[in-house]
């Protein structure tokens, strides 16, 4: 399989196999002609990232480009979101989405157009800003698909809705757009499609029928105690010991409480208590990330966290008014579900477009994506699919498989995908998906 990936990734030409299209050569030529401008757009977006829910420059740039292509564009949907609509006769409604926000990361890629942007994070701390998750390639790919579909309206029939979404990294943008009337002010889609770059061989498409990404919950546990001098622990109720017992018992939620066929993760990422060697503090604080797929599993894990925190406090002799406090922090991101029939259908389209060697079924991950919210808003009528597009050059992939090089991951200050391969593949795949779902009448 690795050799197959390498052979596929080494040939990121623009094959002309859009299924069912009489002018496939014209479409491939159109995308080829677009690539210099799309790469220029990518470099500009990469050099000028903006933090979540602050994407004003980015949104304005994308809105202007879509207007020039003939779309009916509305800005400031869900604070900084952009919605572009192109009606083209009778047929289904297809929504294509790209996310816009960067991350509070100081870039270390060494690219000539590397970001030097600085902004204030929500914590108030000034930080560098970087497109360390590849959203710049997503946006350029969306614009590429927008142009292909606008130029070849004879190849499809229906309503196309393009979404430039803010705030994916904080799990707020999709919800903000929905609460601002995305599916009431604008045509509600029958199908929603998106892609995400990945540490896979460049130009290879990965897809996961069913669950693709996880529920993401952030949980805070405040553990009260009775502080005092470290030399006299019998006169205290040590919250560090109690919190440590809670951490240990939390591990049983997955190892002994979760069906092994139903993956889940409970990670304690932060443990804070005290400030001096000889003082027992009067409080400990834990921060958790909790990952699951189904709603029932999610609720079982969250209920279990509260039960264990309380049970360990009772065992430690804490009075009722000094029980641990469990609170949900940040925005809950629901699991992303790819409708299996749609995923298999579009995978077939991608195989016809790019060749079977560049399309592979991939396992679900425990990462999170708020693209999930669009299908979840009306799961009876909206089908959705998100797929991966690899961005690792053949040489780097081969070196990593030989154990000679460690690949940077998404969110790394060193993440610099093969942007041309990601953008060309993503744009072609989005256009192919839309044309498959909105066939010409």
TrEMBL record:
Residues 213-312 form the Peptidase M20 dimerisation domain. Residues 1-24 form the signal peptide. Keywords: Hydrolase, Signal. It holds the Pfam family M20_dimer. It comes from the Bacteria. InterPro entries: Amidohydrolase (IPR017439), Bact_exopeptidase_dim_dom (IPR036264), Peptidase_M20 (IPR002933), Peptidase_M20_dimer (IPR011650). This is Amidohydrolase. It comes from Croceicoccus esteveae.
């Amino acid at each position: 399989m690795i050799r197959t990936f390498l052979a596929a990734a080494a040939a990121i030409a623009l094959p002309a196999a859009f299924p069912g299209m009489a002018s496939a050569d014209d479409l491939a030529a159109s995308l080829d002609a677009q690539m210099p401008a799309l790469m220029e757009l990518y470099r500009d977006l990469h050099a000028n990232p903006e933090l979540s829910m602050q994407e004003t420059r980015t949104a304005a740039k994308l809105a202007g480009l879509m207007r020039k292509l003939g779309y009916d564009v509305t800005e400031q949907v869900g604070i900084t979101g952009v919605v572009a609509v192109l009606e083209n006769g009778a047929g289904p409604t297809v929504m294509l989405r790209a996310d816009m926000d960067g991350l509070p990361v100081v870039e270390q890629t060494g690219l000539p157009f590397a970001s030097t942007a600085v902004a204030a994070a929500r914590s108030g701390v000034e930080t560098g800003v970087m497109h360390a998750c590849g959203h710049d390639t997503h946006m350029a790919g969306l614009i590429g698909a927008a142009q292909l579909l606008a130029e070849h309206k004879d190849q499809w029939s229906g309503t196309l809705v393009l979404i430039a979404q803010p705030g994916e990294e904080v799990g707020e943008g999709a919800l903000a757009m929905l609460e601002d009337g995305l599916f009431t002010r604008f045509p509600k889609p029958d199908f929603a499609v998106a892609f995400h770059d990945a540490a896979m061989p460049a130009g290879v498409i990965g897809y996961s029928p069913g669950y693709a990404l996880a529920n993401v919950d952030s949980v805070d546990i405040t553990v009260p105690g009775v502080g005092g001098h470290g030399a006299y622990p019998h006169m205290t109720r040590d919250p560090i010991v109690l919190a440590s017992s809670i951490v240990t018992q939390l591990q049983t939620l997955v190892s002994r409480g979760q069906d092994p066929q139903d993956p889940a993760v409970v990670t304690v990422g932060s443990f804070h208590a005290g400030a001096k060697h000889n003082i027992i503090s009067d409080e400990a604080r834990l921060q958790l990330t909790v990952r699951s797929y189904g709603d029932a599993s999610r609720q079982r894990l969250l209920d279990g966290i509260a039960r264990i925190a309380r049970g360990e406090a009772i065992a430690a002799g804490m009075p009722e008014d000094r029980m641990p406090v469990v609170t949900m922090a940040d925005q809950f991101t629901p699991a992303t579900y790819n409708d299996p029939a749609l995923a298999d259908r579009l995978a077939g389209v991608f195989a016809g477009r790019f060749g079977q060697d560049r399309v592979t079924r991939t396992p679900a991950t425990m990462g999170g994506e708020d693209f999930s919210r669009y299908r979840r808003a009306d799961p009876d009528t909206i089908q959705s699919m998100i797929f991966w597009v690899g961005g690792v050059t053949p040489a780097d992939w081969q070196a990593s498989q030989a154990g000679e090089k460690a690949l940077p991951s998404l969110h790394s200050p060193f993440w610099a995908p093969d942007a041309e391969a990601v953008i060309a593949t993503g744009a072609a795949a989005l256009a192919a998906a839309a044309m498959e779902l909105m066939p010409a009448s």
